[in-house]
Amino acid sequence: MTLYPFHLINTFAERRLSGNPIVVFTPDEMPDEQTRQTLAFQMGVAETAFIAQTGTQVHVHSTQHALPFSVQAMLATAEATHPNESGLAAQAFKTNNGETWLLRQNDRWWSQLATAHTRPAQHNNTEIAITLGIAAGDIVGAPLFVDCGLEQLIVQVRSQQAVLQTSPQAASLAKLAESSKNLPQVAVWSNDGDHITLRFFSCDAFNVYEDFGAGTGAANIAGWLMASGQSAPFTLRIEQGLTIHRLISRLSVIHVDVDAQRNIRVGGNTHRVGGGTLEF
């Protein structure tokens, strides 16, 4: 029997019991991929991160799949492994996408993202709207695939109501948002002036999954804005989670900062709310 210590971290959490719960395992040695996936399924949270106590390599899993990269998992890992950092502090972690820098400023961890790369969507607005369950007239601007570390289809819509109405199906979403780098993923968002409302979906051959805190989606929204003519610098406040169609949900708040050199950082408040040891 092996003991696996873990931490339960709420990410993008303006209050302790808000945001998206992430589990971070900190074993003595990194378990193999099958064991990591088994542990991720056992924990049942949106994402589970693994980092050996003497290492810097981070592996991330959903309950069903290994993930190449995740901002919220990186923020949670930073909080779990460096809980006593205060003021200005930086940490570097390795992922399948290369090295990622995490910076803590006051109560908020920030992740530095790669430069955004874009390409046109392969489907027209009518096809995209039908797949998302909204009206074609609700789509604003040109939907783009944006890649700040993970390639995702970014679709702006006219109103929060259109965001709330979005209801994609797995088969059609898989064709719409197909990417060579990862599972098909789409961010649907609206800008109401003071804040952005976001829903974020990914899918496999069987199911559509909705995320409570899509940090990479937030970064890709910033990339979409710059590709659509937005000048830098600028900041974004993105709300997610309460839009999910469940009996019980809660708010995630994602902060995005783009500097004059068009560098993108994604940040959020993180809180360790518990932990323990799993026997396996």
TrEMBL record:
<dbReference type="InterPro" id="IPR003719">
    <property type="entry name" value="Phenazine_PhzF-like"/>
</dbReference>
<protein>
    <submittedName>
        <fullName>PhzF family phenazine biosynthesis protein</fullName>
    </submittedName>
</protein>
<dbReference type="Pfam" id="PF02567">
    <property type="entry name" value="PhzC-PhzF"/>
</dbReference>
<comment type="similarity">
    <text>Belongs to the PhzF family.</text>
</comment>
